[in-house]
């Protein structure tokens, strides 16, 4: 999300690399800071205890945590000083399981409760999705078919719901931000409908001359092959491209989108990897994608090749986070969207 951070006023640009408060004094935060709303599923994550001496499906001890791409954004921003202004919209089970799940989530936030961050989480009867990770074997297994998020009723997140959430605080000096990923629409028909509702209403708000300047919409395509094909995901995302201010692509996405428009980026990527490692290579990938004028038909969407493929550049550098490659994002019209 560095592209978003870069766009904030000087008052809000205390160095995140040194864990300083992101904005001004608490009394001025609401005036100067945007509110980001992230929509998506979180799951229980199990990994073999590294001290248990076993990394297999039959490990005797497992470590439990919570994982979710969209949730991670709210936790990270909250730790960087955004507090309760980074909100997560989702569905969590009712009962003891859901209580335990929310307790684990709350502990991830600076106040150890998630006050403000978790206020938009809905509680319904059902189960939570889980996944197991075997790091040494580079294996991961998801079990989410019966998750309460996947079985949601799309009407819970209707366009009216999103209008209320995204218009909240419209009098603020800074924009609202809606962040989604390409994971959600591939989980189930129901989650896709709710995801569509969010983006459709975001477009309607942008069309509103009063509110439109104050809404920024971002998407990390984040294709997960286990959920569906890249082609399926692209067909879901393409109708919403006009709504997006920022699209984050992985290297694989860059190659795939090139194929959609008749470009062979695989060879270009190989050359970039050899000649321009790290962030310089990421900037090169951004340039490749921004060279497809048909992709956004003149819209002011920013395209980002998000993944730094020369990971050795990051070793021992805690502050050098992968998302910092966004600073190389190329805007097709050479200017930021009006909301920034």
From TrEMBL:
<dbReference type="GO" id="GO:0016301">
    <property type="term" value="F:kinase activity"/>
</dbReference>
<dbReference type="Pfam" id="PF00294">
    <property type="entry name" value="PfkB"/>
</dbReference>
<keyword id="KW-0808">Transferase</keyword>
<dbReference type="InterPro" id="IPR011611">
    <property type="entry name" value="PfkB_dom"/>
</dbReference>
<feature type="domain" description="Carbohydrate kinase PfkB">
    <location>
        <begin position="35"/>
        <end position="105"/>
    </location>
</feature>
<dbReference type="InterPro" id="IPR029056">
    <property type="entry name" value="Ribokinase-like"/>
</dbReference>
<keyword id="KW-0418">Kinase</keyword>
<protein>
    <submittedName>
        <fullName>Carbohydrate kinase PfkB domain-containing protein</fullName>
    </submittedName>
</protein>
